[in-house]
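Worked Example 4.2. Consider the chain below.
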Amino acid sequence: MLAEHIQLTDYTAIWKAACMEAFVSNVPDYFTSAEIVQFEDWLDKMSEERMYWHYYVVLSEDSLIGCGGFVYEEKLSRVTFAWGLVHRNFHKQGMGKLLLQYRLDRIRTLYPGADIILDTTQFSYTFFEQYGFVTVKYTEDGYTTGMHRYDMILYAGK
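Applying the procedure from the previous section yields the following structure tokens:
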């Protein structure tokens, strides 16, 4: 069973190519092609010393199957989810749930009392609703034509 061999660990630049491959596997269904460069730029910036940036990789026997993280905004006492994804080959196997729960646990440990915000598409927002996130804004075609944006929040203490 896959879950027996799963490890979550901090991202380092050694995982950049594998993260990029996982990201591209989700284009165009979950991300737009324009976001490929944005994600790569974010990984490059995140590799610099960033005290409040946290990013993790999901590994199965040393192969990357997913990645995701968050950024803490101290002035607002809130956390923003950042680039959470699972390689297409591992969809529907519980890896997204595992990655989400790991991030939630880390946030509650590091930043108790912080609200958590994210934005996602019509293809994923119901996944986050299962964990208490609520939609606070909807933007039709918010990412591109046919890809709507849902801004969501999980209030502290939920």
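Residues 13 and 44 are 8 Å apart (CA to CA). The first strand starts at residue 6 and ends at 10. Compare this with Example 4.1 before moving on.
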